[in-house]
Write a structure and sequence with these properties.
- By secondary structure, this protein is mainly beta.
- The protein is built from no helices and 13 strands.
- The strands form 3 sheets. Strands 2, 3, 4, 6, 9 and 10 form a 6-stranded antiparallel β-sheet that branches. A 5-stranded antiparallel β-sheet has the order 7-8-5-11-12, with no helix packed on it. The chain has a two-stranded antiparallel sheet with strand order 1-13.
- The chain starts with 7 loop residues before the first strand and ends in an 11-residue tail after the last strand.
- 29% of the residues are buried.
Amino acid sequence: MQKSRRRLLVASLPVVMAAGLSTALAAPAHADTGSSLTLAESHQQAFVAGGTGTYTITVGNAGPGATDGTATKVTGTLPTGVTALAVGGSGWSCKTSPSLTCTRSDVLGPRQAYLSITLTVGISPSLAGKSVTSSFRVARGGPTTFQDEGSIAVKDTISQSQTQTQTQTQTQTVNVKCPSDHNKRSAV
């Protein structure tokens, strides 16, 4: 009986970026015939204390195979002082309470992405000049058990005013796990 092995890719990608640029995550560094979900996040403007901000979250499939139609779930954790006001995206079923969650169950082809999720947040005036970190995760499974596919942490420094030029440091942590049946799969 062959033992099932899982490989775990952990990468920390510090990226210094000006507001308006986006970042993306890479696929796991192993051969696989299945799907491999990734996350990408972008926002077009610096977040301003007392205002609102918008995250654009995209789930892609970097694997050579399509997803199997089981549920894909994106969850988010926001720091104190950042409140989810609205979340949604074409094909996604989303809610902000009791936790920030979006799900869908349609098949995603290889090297394709679902339409993005847009998350609008309110930013407390008390956060002016402070750095905050939001995190997002993608998982597959359902209806009650999900297996993590990856995560991203987004660090922002909150501006004091709209006219302040803001350079943001965005740190991403990627945890990508191979499917549990990885060793049972065969190349086509």
